Amino acid sequence: MEYKIVGHNILRVDGLAKVTGKATYPEDLYMEGMLYGKTLRSIKTHAYITVDTKEAEKIDGVIKIFTHKDIPHNYYGVLFKDHEVFCSKKVRRIGDPIAFVVAITEKIAEKAIKAITVEYDEIESVFDPVDAMKEDAPLIHDRSNILYHYKLRRGNIEEAFQQCSVIVENQYKTSMVDHAFLQPEAGLAYMEGDTVVVCAATQYPHFDQLEISEALNIPQEKVKIINPAVGGAFGGREDITLQIHLALATWVIGKPVKTVYSREESFVAHSKRHPMIMNYKTGADANGKLLAMEANIIGDTGAYASWAINIMRKAGVHATGPYEIPNVKVDSYAVYTNNPFAGAMRGFGAAQVPIAHEQQMDMLAEKLKIDPITFRLNNCFKLGSTTATGQVLEESVPLIQCIEAVRHKLNSKANDTEGV
C-alpha cells in the first residue's frame, strides 16, 4: 500500500515561518491602545499577608490594580483547585501571585508594583518532603501534606526476599528541573464583542478556556483562546500562569492588555519536574532471576498539586522498569512543601524511576558476576509477560531485539577501537 505521509519526508507546516523568523509568538503581538500588565509576586515562602495598594493606585498612568477582591471565583488548578488567582490570606511559595497592575506603559506598571505594600507575617516553612509528611509538620493547605498515596502489591514480598541469593538496597534522589523553554510566558487579551479573547502560548487551550470561565464566572462560549507559536513547552505550559490575569483585566477594563514575563519571572511562575526520593530494595536468585522488589517513592509537588496524582501514580506503575518481577511492593507519594510547585514535564513521572531501577540491575549483576546486558535479557519483558499491575503484554514487545541491537553496536565499536 502506498501511503501519503508514512515513509515520506513531509515539510512541517510551521517550519518555514520559524526558521525565517516570521512566526508570530505572543511577545510579538500588538494592538493599538493596548495596556500593560505586571504581576506582583510573593518574596516569602510561607506567610500570612496584608496588601495595601493605595499608594500604587495614585501613580499617574495606573489604570487598575487587581487583587483577590476583584475575582469572582479566586481559584484554579488542573486536578485540584488549590491555586488562588491572587493570594487572599497567605502565600505558600516564592512567586505566588498577589496583585496584577494594569497601566498605560510597562515602566509605569513596574513602578506601581514597587509601590504596593505587602506585610508578611511569616510562618514556619517546610522544604523537605520527608519532613512534610510528619504529623507535626506545618500545613501548606488546610489538609494533610500527603496529597496522594499510590499502592502497588503483587505476590508475597517477605517470603520472596528470604529466597533471594543477592539483595541490593539503596536510596536515589533526583533534583528539581526547570523546562527553561526559549520563550518566556507572554500574552495579549482583548474583547471581541462580548467575548474575551486570550492569545497565549499554551499546551491546553481547552483547559485555559474552562479555568478562565470558572474564575470570571462567565459562560465558556464567552472565552476564546488563540494559541500563537509556542516557543517551547515540554509540559511547563500545562498550568495557568498569566491567562486568568489577562482575561480578568480585559473583561473589566474593556481594552487590550499585554503581559511579557522576564526570564526570572518565568522561573518562579511555572511548574517544575518533581524531585523524587526513591528507596529501592531488589532481590534475585543465584541464577540471576529477579524475585522481589520493594520501592518507596516520595515526590515533592511543592506548594500546589498540578498533575502530581497522575505523575506519582505513573512513577509507581513504572517503578519495576521493563522487568518481570513476581513479587512487588510499591508505595509512591505526592507531598506538599513550600518549594516551587511541580507539574508536567516530559516523561510524566516515568523519567525519574529508571535512575533507580537500572542502577539496581547493574548492582545485582555485579554481585552475581553476570554481564549486565545478559542479566537484563534474562529478566526483561517479552511477549506474554505480566507486569506488576497485572497487564499481560500480548503484542509489540521488542525489548529483547532492542537490547541485542545495542549490544551488537557496543561490541562493534569495541572491536573498531582495538589496537588504537
If you had to describe this structure to a student in words, what would you say it looks like?
The protein contains 12 helices and 15 strands. The chain has 420 residues and is of the alpha+beta class. The protein folds into 2 domains: 186 residues, Aldehyde Oxidoreductase, domain 3 (Alpha-Beta Complex), CATH 3.90.1170; 190 residues, 2-Layer Sandwich (Aldehyde Oxidoreductase, domain 4). A hairpin with a 5-residue loop joins strand 13 and strand 14.
Largest sheet: 7 strands, mixed
CATH superfamily of the largest domain: Aldehyde oxidase/xanthine dehydrogenase, molybdopterin binding domain
- Order of strands, main sheet, comes to 3-5-1-12-9-10-11
Low-confidence stretches: none
CATH class of the largest domain: Alpha Beta
What is the mean pLDDT? 96
Task: Considering the chains and any ligands shown, give keywords for the structure.
420 residues; alpha+beta; Aldehyde Oxidoreductase, domain 3; Aldehyde Oxidoreductase, domain 4; 2 domains; seven-stranded mixed sheet; five-stranded mixed sheet; 26% helix; globular
Compile the SSE list and pairings.
Blueprint: H1 15-19, E1 35-41, E2 47-52, H2 54-57, E3 62-66, E4 90-91, E5 97-103, H3 106-115, E6 117-122, H4 129-132, E7 146-154, H5 157-162, E8 166-174, E9 186-192, E10 195-200, H6 205-216, E11 223-226, H7 243-253, E12 257-260, H8 263-269, E13 276-284, E14 290-302, H9 308-317, E15 327-336, H10 353-368, H11 372-379, H12 399-416
Parallel strand pairs: 1-12, 10-11, 14-15
Antiparallel strand pairs: 1-5, 2-4, 2-6, 3-5, 7-15, 8-13, 9-10, 9-12, 13-14
Helix pairs in contact: 6-7
